[in-house]
Amino acid sequence: MVFGDNSLVLKHVNTGTKIHFNALDALVGWKHEALPPVEVPAAAKWKFRSKPLQQVVLDYDYTFTTPYNGSETVERNAEYVRGLSNESSCSLHWEDCIDKIDLVALASKEPILFYDEIILYEDELADNGISLLTVKVRVMPSGWFLLLRFWLRVDGVLMRLRDTRLHCLFEGHMKSVILRESCWREATFQALSSKGYPSDCAAYSDPSIISERLPIIMQKAQKLSIEKPFENFLAISIQILHLPDWDEMSFESLY
């Protein structure tokens, strides 16, 4: 199930900086990564029972695993990009860093001014698990936080979790920073069972609960600096929220 009209767009109006999330770009990432297909336990029986001409050969990654961490651009109609080259005006420069998102501070009891969750695509893998890509966003008085999550569970075989978190504080100075953390986790049911964890698929319905059981296979942190007053940051087709200053923002959720 592809929700092609769903998207989340965050736009910094003064600089034209635009970060957005959509199913099409995520599936382009899936196509480019081209992981080998995951074989479910029943596949061997299907092959044995089927006649050669009736066999269905899966030669692609039917789990739709994607390395996608968002789409981005700088729109040329903003004053900020006047005089820049064509190449520099269409992409953002993320720098590797050692800074970390303060998840403890985010867990504090701060008022949530706006929250939404958007499904980009979902598959039940022919009743053999789940493949799900979602993006969640919330706005607080201090800033905004976003979680892009790909969650895969192939029952009895494999679990895969790919999270991308973005956080920005409303500071209102000449320079503001967005932190982006990507963390990929993965484990087979067999590996988890060998560590004493349950092998029952029902125990793994919530990725947030079992994420710490999955070993990290890739992790990186990056930051994006905006060299203009951070005001009017986000626009999402329908103006849902309006805050003062860069602190002035609007969110656009397309359903």
UniProtKB/TrEMBL annotation:
Superkingdom assignment: Eukaryota
Biological process terms in GO annotation: TOR signaling
GO annotations of cellular component type: cytosol
InterPro entries: Phosphatase_reg/MetRdx, TIP41-like
Family listed: Belongs to the TIP41 family.
Name the UniProt record assigns to this protein: TIP41-like protein
